[in-house]
Amino acid sequence: MNGVPRPELAPRLRDALLAADYSVGVVDSLLGPTARAALQRSETTAALRRTTGGSPVATLVRLFILQTVVSRADADRALAGLTVRLAEAGLLLASGGEVRAALDCRPYADDARDWWVVSDLTPGLDGQPIRVDADHVLGLTPASTSLTQLTTRRPVARALDLGTGCGVQSLHLSTHAESVVATDVNPRALAVAAFNAALNDVALDLRAGSLWAPVAEEAFDLVVSNPPFVISPATDRRLVYRDSGLPGDRVVEEIVRGASAHLADGGWSHVVANWAIHDGRPWDERLEAWLPDDCDALVVQRDVLDPPAYVELWLKDAGRHGGPGYLEAYDAWLGWFGDQQIEGIGFGWVNLRKGGQERELLDHPYAVEQPAAPAVEAWASAQHAAVDEGSRLERRPDVVQETHGEPGAEHPETIVLRQRLGLCRARQVDTVEAALAGASDGDLTVGQILDALALLLDRDRAELATTYLPAACELVRAGFLTPV
Ligand SMILES: C[S@@+](CC[C@H](N)C(=O)[O-])C[C@H]1O[C@@H](n2cnc3c(N)ncnc32)[C@H](O)[C@@H]1O
Fold first, then answer.
1. 450-466 pLDDT per residue, tens
2. Mean pLDDT of 280-287
């Protein structure tokens, strides 16, 4: 593959990167928090000032992360004399005594493991004009991090990474799946993923093809996808990493509708996605219609952009802001949204678990505990919990009660139960529901708590059960209470 090193070279590069101590921990402490924050804003100057020492790791940071020219001597020292081989292979560009990166190569880690990820160069550092080719292979992005945090990490037999790109999801999957199939339509992405697999000594079953085609008859215990979800009119400037070529949000619909056929019983699918919100139609109505009948589904809308904000975001992402044709492209995209009667674009997660029919479509633009995966798994268990008078429930330890009202008033105007962990939900409750949650310590049954509340509040016991058994069930489903 032109411009992507062959996997055979990966073990020698790995040895060199190891010898140079090119790891997340070392790079983070070399850069420090301020320069790292500047780099997050695509500014390299602060990081350049912290990497002048000439150590191998400083050279690698300058070369790959800051995209500066380094001397041939420094590059050779940092890469164990591999400069020429890596330049021939397409990772570096060497000319005279100078070397620069042709691809990005950076350390990456989870809590337990260190990896390196090769991808195309991060575009747009220091306000440079962004040039992104149609077959650009994306590196680590906020959407990929979102998906890594959303994905259940229980051991599984078979996992699928649909639209693998540089293979970052597959690296994570390889830690807890016996086998990982990774697919992509972009041959360049498959070549980069193959190199990354070899670089990290991970076995991947890489397959070319669109959507579900490469795995037509197969089922998996875990499917993840960060698909090309940008919702745009068809143009001749399609970037394959973000534009599916399908109209609107069809790519997400196809993945969500198709998931059930490729999930083993009890298997999970996690997708990060954009969806169109049509004029006057609730955001969740279309989404709900896509959900397979035989899966539990937790759909969470994390953000909504209006059409101009969305168009600006993605035109800037492609480096077109202020460039030739910017205003025309902006206008055409907005006009297309108008024609499609799209009034907003949602960003969020679609989580499916094969074997149930429970659904929740939650508009939740608030902070959540990361990683979110344990909360998503807990959600599925809670939907299947039976709650009756004999149930013993326990308040989740992170749940607190907030009261609001006039200072000095005898009774609060509102009471809110708030989770400080997990999905960090909040629920307004009345005094009975608050007392029910407060008394749920796992010892008393719901029935015993209702008996006590009926006496204490002088309320009809049967009426309390009619109102507050369903409330107890909702508190369990939303994670405020857990069955003992
Ligand atoms: C947003 S990138 C995600 C890359 C990586 N999985 C991640 O999480 O960062 C989307 C990937 O889907 C691939 N892709 C685009 N259209 C596809 C299709 N129809 N079927 C499968 N993959 C596709 C792109 O080439 C790209 O690598």
1. 999 999 999 999 999 99
2. 96
189 lines ligand 1 (CB under 6 A): yes
User: For residue 227, how far is its CA from the centre of ligand 1 (angstroms)?
Assistant: 5
pLDDT in tens, 368-405: 999 999 999 999 999 999 999 999 999 999 999 999 99
If DSSP states are collapsed to H, E and C, what string results for the chain? CCCCCCHHHHHHHHHHHHHCCCCHHHHHHHHHHHHHHHHHCCCCHHHHHCCCCCCHHHHHHHHHHCCCCEEHHHHHHHCCCCHHHHHHHCCEEEECCEEEECCEEEEEECCCCEEEEEECCCCCHHHCCCCCCCCCCCCCCHHHHHHHHHCCCCCEEEEEEECCCCCHHHHHHCCCEEEEEEEECCHHHHHHHHHHHHHCCCCCEEEECCCCHHHCCCCEEEEEECCCECCCCCCCCCCCCCECCCCCCHHHHHHHHHHHHHEEEEEEEEEEEEEEEECCCCHHHHHHHHCCCCEEEEEEEEEEECHHHHHHHHHHHCCCCCCCCHHHHHHHHHHHHHHCCEEEEEEEEEEEEECCCCEEEEECCCCCCCCCHHHHHHHHHHHCCCCCCCCEEEECCCEEEEEECCCCCCCCCEEEEEECCCCCCEEEECHHHHHHHHHCEEEEEHHHHHHHHHHHHCCCHHHHHHHHHHHHHHHHHCCCEEEC
For residue 1, what pLDDT is reported?
53
pLDDT, position 8? 97
pTM of this prediction?
Answer: 0.96
Ligand 1, atom 18: closest residue by C-alpha: 210
Atom of ligand 1 nearest to the CA of 211: 20
For the cut 70, the answer to whether the pLDDT of residue 347 exceeds it is yes
Domains and CATH numbers, the chain: 7-105 (no CATH), 142-369 (3.40.50.150), 392-483 (1.10.10)
Residue 305: which pLDDT band, with cuts at 50, 70 and 90? very high
Choose which residue among 122, 185, 246 to substitute to test ligand 1 binding: the one with the highest number of ligand atoms within 8 A of its C-beta: 185
How high is the mean pLDDT of the chain? 96
- CA 270 to centroid of ligand 1, rounded, Å: 14
Residue to probe by mutation, ligand 1, list 104, 240, 251, most atoms within 8 Å of CB: 240
Mean pLDDT value of segment 51-73: 97
